[in-house]
Amino acid sequence: MDMAKVNLQDDEYIILKESNITPALPMALATDEVIFTNKNIIYISKGFLGDTKKVDYFLLDDIKIIDGNVQIFEVEKYNLKYLEIDFKNRNLMFSFDSGYHRKKWIEEITNFIKSKNDNKVVTKCVSCGAQISGIRGQYTKCQYCKSEQIL
């Protein structure tokens, strides 16, 4: 995998990665790569010869959750089964070589999103009283007074 083309944040780490991914296009080849991190799903579009054409970052925080259900599905299109992830302003659809990988990705992403949301806290800043939110037990910075505090 050509990790030089992927820019991870300092506190970002890889959870899963796969190559030989097929994009949701008719007659597409399995040349792409996908990476699931603690912050993004990174989709790397590759050419026929393996050269990187485009790198797209999909924020995990933008995945839709409807009635407590993370919007990630197995769908059929072009006679293949795909993984579809619905984000707030767009969606991502791709296929793996095997159904095992598709099911594993659905399970891992769903569990990660649910556990992340279970730990979210909304409270008031101890310095200025503004509403702040973040993950329980972690530092957050108030966007108004810039004070840091543990939630």
From TrEMBL:
Protein name per its UniProtKB record: Uncharacterized protein
Species in which this protein is naturally found: Floricoccus penangensis
